[in-house]
UniProtKB/TrEMBL annotation:
Coiled coil: 39-89
Biased composition (Polar residues): 1-10
Sequence segments annotated as region (Disordered): 1-21
Native organism taxonomy: Eukaryota, Fungi, Dikarya, Basidiomycota, Agaricomycotina
Keywords for the protein's UniProt record, in alphabetical order: Coiled coil
Name this protein carries in UniProt: Uncharacterized protein
Biological source species: Mycena maculata
Amino acid sequence: MAQRRGQAQPTKIRKTEPSEDFNFLASQQSTGSDDNASLALAQQLMASKQKKREEMEKKFFGVAKSKLANELSQAADELKSTVEATELVYSKFILDYAALEDTIRALWMEIKKEEQKLLGIAKRQRAANEELHRTTERAQIAGMTQVKEACHETRTIVRTLLPTSD
């Protein structure tokens, strides 16, 4: 009978590196002259492992430092452009505000000039009205004096024309 078998799959070999918590020296059981050689090999392995870790840390910190410097540079550039834009807007505001204040001051100066003109006209008009009032008052007094004299003359004529009843 034929047996069905699938294709043989290649076995995967895992490469394992000694983990940091693996105690290499404790796993070795040797006695005698091999102890010195094993100890030297273990120390060499530990030293290379330590060196590799230090290199990895150095590389990590170097990359982290460059990324941090890049991020800080970008943030500083953004902050600088924001400050420049704010200063530009503020300076425009200050210039516009100053121009408006100048315009307002010019308008107030015009109003003051017109007020001075109106005060002069009002003084002249008042003086003219007072003079007209005095002239009118004198004319009225003169007219009343004439009316009074006319009344006296009329009485005198009426008395002369009317017989007296005495």
